[in-house]
Amino acid sequence: MEVKTSLLDNMIGVGDMVLLEPLSEDSFIANLRNRFDHNEIYTYIGSVVISMNPYRSLPIFTPEKVEEYRNRNFYELSPHIYALADEAYRSLRDQDKDQCILITGESGAGKTEASKLVMSYVAAVCGKGQEVNKVKEQLLQSNPVLEAFGNAKTVRNDNSSRFGKYMDIEFDFKGDPLGGVISNYLLEKSRVVKQPRGERNFHIFYQLLSGASDDTLKKLKLDRDFSKYNYLSLDSAAVNGLDDAANFRTVRNAMQIVGFMEDEVQSVLELVAAVLKLGNIEFKPESRCNGNDESRIKDKNDLKEMCELLGTEQTVLERAFSYRTVEAKQEKVCTTLNVAQAYYARDALAKNLYSRLFSWLVTRINESIKAAPKSRHKVMGVLDIYGFEIFEENSFEQFIINYCNEKLQQIFIELTLREEQEEYVREGIEWTNIEYFNNAIICDLIENHQNGILAMLDEECLRPGTVTDETFLDKLNTICAEHLHFESRLSKSSKFLTDHSLPHNCFRIQHYAGKVLYRAEGFVDKNNDLLYRDLSQAMYKANHSLMKQLFPEGNPAKVNLKRPPTAGFQFRHSVGTLMRNLQTKNPNYIRCIKPNDKKASHIFTDSLVCHQVRYLGLMENVRVRRAGYAFRQAYEPCLERYKMLCKRTWPHWRGPAREGVEVLMGDLTVPAEEFSYGRSKVFIRNPRTLFFLEERRRQCLQDLATLIQKIYRGWKCRSHFLLLKKSQIVVAAWYRRYAQHNKYKRIKSATIVVQSYTRGWQARKLLRELKYQKRCEEAVTTISAYWHGTQVRREYRKFFRANAGKKIYNFTIQRIMQKYFLGLKSTMPSMSPIDKSWPVKPYLFLDGVHSDLRRIFHLWRCKKYRSEFTEEKKAVFEEKLEASEIFKDKKALYASSVSQPFMGDYLEISKNPKYQKLNSAMDEKVLLADVVNKINRANGKGTARIFLLTKNSVVLADQKTGQVKASVPLPDLTSVSVSTQSDGFFALKLKEGSASAIKGDFLLSSEHLIEIITKLHRTGATAADSEQLNIDISDEFLVQFKHDKVCVKFIQGGPKNGNSVSCKRKNNRLLEVSVPSTV
Ligand SMILES: Nc1ncnc2c1ncn2[C@@H]1O[C@H](COP(=O)(O)OP(=O)(O)O)[C@@H](O)[C@H]1O
Ligand SMILES: [Mg+2]
């Protein structure tokens, strides 16, 4: 539940001066002091905030405080500037009312700080986002820039604003800031050239000299030493707690954030430097022949440097300091300037340069922070303007400032009254006229168009002829003498004639806030604010980016003979605009008060505060506020606050709040004239009534507090007792539990010991058994392992590696054999039996096999070869075979016969008709027919005979006749003799005693000896009844010729015998056959 609080809670003194009772200046100040002593620097007068400058930082501006005041009603919390800012911001955002925050007060009273607090509060509570934050940052950062150029140390304030400032912050419909516009009022430019004792020039000069880098200073032709510059008074150049160098960096940074370009910053600094240089230019008189003194520049170095900074021509400026051109009605008159005039011109130029630079800065900042032109903006204006000033010597500036404050007071009165009146109408309460002092009459004295002081001053300034401050004062004395608020020694009215507090050269005005004595000196001059045209033209000509903007009147093309508007006129005009602007807005006031003159904390000087309270018109303010009803409060919070005062409304009122309040008031018997019922608020006329209510409430709260205390104490004791009781049970329970637990633990541990012994004993026994068992098992395992091992080894021995060699060997052999056989297959020699080729043996160990195979193969192919034979061929080969059996290696002739086929019938006996008869004489088929030589036994010469062989017999016939000469049956043949040589001789030996043997054996020679003998052998063998025919092979054999036996001897004939075989009869018993040597 949200706690409803009120301003009235824990008040120190009264938080709202309207409630002050009794109301007097003393009680007012006492209240302020009381609160100030308790660090309560803010006090309300209705919705106006009085702010006392604490001169020290208080912990009341933290982000937590911002949160505390955010979205709370104005009177809900103790007075604070945040409450005002919040109220203003919320009614701007939610009710679409443009707001203005008017901050007034004496110099050093905390106006600028207050304006910054308001801005920072608004920045903290309004929308967020990248764009919004940038805008906020720019708005906030415009302050340091303007403060550097527009603030200075004065005797009253180390950071005194020397210009008036009004800033419009623009918001969109959501309450997010969009941008802003700053207006500046009357910069105190006289400070540029001269500062009162104990005061400084504007901050920027000191900041530049202390904070800029050596490089920058060199560029600007400046020296760090303040004492080098005439315009910088020396007596208070350094200010306590003010770090000019650091501030310079802050300012540069702020300028960058606000959006100044680097070259713009440079230009600005150049102008600042130029002002300092300008102050150093000095003049000396030079006598002229007409007796007048003419001024000359003493040392041109500063002038030169300044001209370089501004880009002006030195001669032009030099001339402008010595001569003055006056134009009147197309006539140009040139007059010389004396030294005083030259100084005047120099200072005027410096002041103008600086103040125009300042205005340019404001314009430039405005350019950066201006909001995009949208349909409608909500606006919150913050006015931080110089307060009422009463010095010992007051001049034109004070006059102007105080005029401005008069106007503000007027608008304050007007708006406060209007607001009051509007509220009464809104609430339906009868309006009673309020008595108050209206300062319109003073405003009129100053600003009246015909006979106002400003109008008269302007008149004097524009009047031809000699015009001095005295003539101006005379004029005032004549015209304003009757005015109630104007006082002058020389005025017609005699009552001041003897007033010595009023010097002759002064006049006094009774401002609403007090009387102020103005010294007339300087009024005319300052109002004129004259800058010789020659100077402005020289400035216009300067080759510098800013000068043309700053001195537009120097443009020769736009020479305006009309005098420029006077300072007074301009100010009146801008104040008029400001007032009109403020009138359209809902005002919120912050009135700042300075507690002492020493800038010290904790000191409250009554007289000083009293003075301010007077001139700020705060008493007036309270009176106006209290004129009708001092206090008002909406029905709900009122009922909520006071409902305990009446039994009927306590503790709950069920019905409309207004009726509740009526019942409450009725019950309390508050006199009817003391309050009024509005539509939503109850109005209380007198603070006394409110305090009566508050007092009753306090008492009631005390009773209620006692009641609450009583009930609370009872409840507390009861619950304490119950708690004790409960605790005792718990403690007892815990103790019992503890004791039992301990006992249990002892028993348990004993049991465990016993148990452990038994278990140990059992376990050991078991262990022993188990160990034995384990050993048995291990033995069994070992035995079986060995057994299995043996078995397995036995079983697997064949797979052992030891056998692998044999296996591999077998396998290798197998493979080799396989390869060998396959190789053999592919390199097999031809099937011809006479082919001798055979692959070379691949391995030595296959030697036997290889040769065996060769043999087997040969046999096989021979067999194959043979199997292809026909019967005839077979017979031929059988014969050949037989021939081989008989002759091979026995007779040399054999070799030549191998290749000759055995044709048998060489004579083609059956076909040749020549032998037809012979053939027919044969009883058997002729197996062989050939021509042979029959060797004659006598001489050894041969006679050709036909040799025939049949199955049964051998027949010899005459070659020519074919007559059979001899026929020998085969059984009569006993043997055949042949030599071992290559001759064709053979002897057919006949059985002794046979018929054929009569003529003896036959010695024959034939070319086909081998065939003949073979066939003969065969035939003889086949004859069933015959014996095997002997074949006798030797180089000597006996042949039986009739009765004698003749030896036939074969000799190897020499080469001389030729190739032919010759046979010769050596003697009766020897026949020699010479055979050619075979070798
Ligand atoms: N709320 C505050 N808290 C702490 N110090 C303050 C406060 N307001 C003002 N001051 C002190 O007073 C000095 C003058 O305040 P300033 O706002 O410059 O006065 P003004 O603008 O009215 O001339 C500040 O420099 C600061 O030291
Ligand atoms: Mg200020």
Describe the structure in brief.
The protein has 1079 residues and is α+β, with helices and mostly antiparallel strands.
Core attributes:
1079 residues, alpha+beta, seven-stranded mixed beta sheet, 32 helices, 31 strands, 16% strand, elongated, binds magnesium ion
What does this structure look like?
The structure is a single chain. The protein has 1079 residues and is of the alpha+beta class. It is built from 32 helices and 31 strands. The model has no long low-confidence stretch (mean pLDDT 86).
What is this structure's SSE topology?
Layout: H1 25-37, E1 42-45, E2 48-52, H2 63-69, H3 81-95, E3 99-105, H4 111-125, H5 130-150, E4 151-152, E5 160-161, E6 164-171, E7 177-185, H6 190-193, H7 203-211, H8 214-219, H9 244-258, H10 262-280, E8 283-287, E9 293-297, H11 300-310, H12 314-320, E10 323-328, E11 331-336, H13 339-369, E12 378-384, H14 396-427, H15 440-447, H16 453-462, H17 469-479, E13 486-488, E14 506-511, E15 514-519, H18 523-528, H19 533-541, H20 547-550, H21 567-583, E16 586-593, H22 606-615, H23 618-626, E17 631-634, H24 635-642, H25 657-668, E18 675-677, E19 681-684, H26 687-796, H27 801-826, H28 847-867, H29 871-887, H30 894-898, H31 916-921, E20 928-935, E21 942-949, E22 953-958, E23 964-969, E24 973-978, E25 985-990, E26 1002-1005, H32 1009-1022, E27 1030-1033, E28 1036-1041, E29 1044-1053, E30 1062-1067, E31 1070-1076
Parallel strand pairs: 2-16, 3-12, 3-16, 24-27, 29-31
Antiparallel strand pairs: 1-2, 4-5, 6-7, 6-12, 8-9, 10-11, 13-14, 14-15, 17-19, 18-19, 20-21, 20-26, 21-22, 22-23, 24-25, 25-26, 28-29, 30-31
Helix pairs in contact: 1-22, 3-4, 4-5, 5-7, 5-9, 5-13, 7-9, 10-11, 10-13, 14-15, 14-21, 16-17, 24-25, 29-32
This protein binds adenosine-5'-diphosphate and magnesium ion (MG).
Magnesium ion binds next to helix 4 and strand 5.
